[in-house]
Amino acid sequence: MATKLIIDTDPGVDDAFAIALAALSDDVELLGVTTVYGNVPLAATTRNARRVLALCKRADVPVAAGAERPLVYPHPHRARYAHGADGLSGRSSALPEPGRELERADAVTLLTRLLEAADEPVTIAPIGPLTNIAALLAAHPGLRERIARIVVMGGAMDHGNTTAAAEFNIWSDPEAARRVLAGGEVPCVLVPMDLTYRCAVDTEWLATLAASGPVGAALDALTPDYLDHYRKALGWNGVVLHDAVAVAEAVRPGILRTKRFPVDVECSLGPARGTTVVDRRRPELRADTEGEHAPGTVDVAVDTDLDGLRAFLLDRLTGRTRAS
């Protein structure tokens, strides 16, 4: 049975890979894509998402633009240092023009419409700031039962990438992240940076993708700025496909190994803002110290078969085994 999926995204190079992963998987019913500010401003993320879908020949998938800023405070800065000025290493215009008009409805309206129309619960994969998803849960509490789970790429248990403590997606809108992750309203899987870094792929992997055909070549062509950034971050020639790792879990539940922990998000304005607080104490100890307002529990992805995950991504993106 195909997984019914909606992706909420801020493309971004790794977002482009994640969208393509879902769009090219024939065991996924990609109901829609919604966009949010993040790596670059909303107009650019929306354009990029539509062009990636055009690359994958998925004009059937509706796209709606969402939030252009966080819920409370302005967005401090974008991630051009990793993704380039247009979000795709300056190569967005090399992708095909969109084959479908942008939805007139905003992201939350499209999410609502798709959830109401679905004949079974839908998985939502937010792989950017969580502003749209927090707004959906706040405005439409009756739709919670129509959401199978929310698979979030974000957070870090060890150290951040945008600040010493915070990962970019959570840091971009901590208040929204806290509503989604700590609210306990919908089952959540959190795919943190700690694991996605371990799933990094090397240039040989990228070369195999590039040689696979037009789609693989186009995706590889989006990576030069991204590769420059991750060469510094990793210390070797490779890239971290954060969002594709999360969408892999949405596409194939269980490909990542998870453990259940209480999760909270630091929303102060100090240096810890945006920190994902994963309580890894033994449950017996937590029971002695938690108050009545303890945060919700989340399935946190902690491990995977690294080579198997890389092979799964490559097989799907090259079309070798679309639904194996």
TrEMBL record:
Gene Ontology molecular function terms on file: purine nucleosidase activity
Segments forming domain Inosine/uridine-preferring nucleoside hydrolase: 5-309
Record's keyword annotation contains Magnesium: no
Gene Ontology annotations for the cellular component aspect, listed alphabetically: cytosol
Keywords: Glycosidase, Hydrolase
Organism superkingdom: Bacteria
GO annotation terms (biological process): purine nucleoside catabolic process
Name of this protein: Pyrimidine-specific ribonucleoside hydrolase
Species of origin: Prauserella shujinwangii
